[in-house]
Amino acid sequence: MDNIAKDIINKLNLGIIVIDSNQNIVMWNNWLERFTKKTKLDTINQKLVDICPRFSEMKYQNMIETAILKGLTRFCSSSLHDIFISPAINYYNDIINKQNLLIEPISIKDEVFVVLQIHDITFYHSRMLELKNFITRIEHEYVEVKASESLNKQLALHDSLTELPNRLLFNERLLWGIKYAQRNKTLLAVIFLDLDGFKNINDTYGHTVGDILLKLVANRLLSTVRQTDTVARLGGDEFIILLTEIKDVAAIELIVNKLLKCFNYPFEINNLSISASIGISIYPQDGQDSEQLINSSDLAMYKVKNAGKNGYSFSYAND
């Protein structure tokens, strides 16, 4: 066959099979190679029925013979016949393959050939399926991105050792707490807690034991305060606690005494015992913003350190 004609046929987006009067395949285009994974070497000069068994059925044999002997063109609708050649891979899953078939005679130099044009209309369904799969992949990627963002935010706002909120997250909650206290005319307390003698534990038992102790302290502090309160780690052996929705100083003292008592029994690592020094500032009398309140509680904590440790002190900025 003419090389130009072959090039055109190979670029068509449908299957082209050309057979001679003996039903031997003389043309098998590129689309068919991609669709069936049968190459030209596999198919050329082979019997049509050996490569495409569906054409052995009597009705298709009659159509081919009619095309060869009488030059008649026949069209087979996919709605009646479904499929004539099977794809090498079922890309369509549960979608029923649909193919149109056009059987058309052609004469070249007094020799009769039959052109079988197979149009896979399932292709349009497959594009929709590919689009659906693409959307699904995008959704999965979106979920992964959001999970990664959530993890990164978790890491950015929490202490890596104890998983408590860090200074950044504590400041955010403190700012919110101050606004809430302003609107609702309630008190707010900032509790600065420093462990007594923690350096000696690190020096004696090593940093691994010290890290475990910090985790155990964090758990005790969390179990002592209310769920609405925030326990954060500033670094080293320094913790800071935010108490919101406080009605009076007595309520603050009740929580602080519980915090001190949680150190009264040894921890589950080397039976270690440790105490804490606590400084307390109260909004609004000890500060109008987060920086003032944290600094005031820090200074109050050092009063306790200087007085012998293991206790608490209020800031009372004006004293």
Please, could you describe this protein's structure?
This protein folds into three domains: 3-120, 2-Layer Sandwich (Beta-Lactamase), CATH 3.30.450; 129-156; 167-314, Reverse transcriptase/Diguanylate cyclase domain (Alpha-Beta Plaits). Helix content is 47%, strand content 22%. The protein has helices at 3-11, 30-36, 40-43, 48-51, 58-70, 78-81, 122-157, 167-184, 198-205, 207-224, 249-261, 290-306; strands spanning 15-19, 25-28, 74-76, 99-108, 111-120, 187-196, 230-235, 238-246, 275-283, 311-314. The strands form two sheets. A five-stranded antiparallel beta sheet has the order 2-1-5-4-3, with helices on both faces. A hairpin with a 2-residue loop joins strand 7 and strand 8. The longest helix has 36 residues, at 122-157. The mean pLDDT is 86.
| Biggest sheet layout | 5 strands, antiparallel
Globally, the shape reads rod-shaped
Number of domains: 3
Strand order of the largest sheet: 2-1-5-4-3
- Secondary structure class reads alpha+beta
Average pLDDT over all residues:
86
Ends distance: 107 Å
Secondary structure topology:
Layout: H1 3-11, E1 15-19, E2 25-28, H2 30-36, H3 40-43, H4 48-51, H5 58-70, E3 74-76, H6 78-81, E4 99-108, E5 111-120, H7 122-157, H8 167-184, E6 187-196, H9 198-205, H10 207-224, E7 230-235, E8 238-246, H11 249-261, E9 275-283, H12 290-306, E10 311-314
Parallel strand pairs: 9-10
Antiparallel strand pairs: 1-2, 1-5, 3-4, 4-5, 6-8, 6-9, 7-8
Helix pairs in contact: 9-10
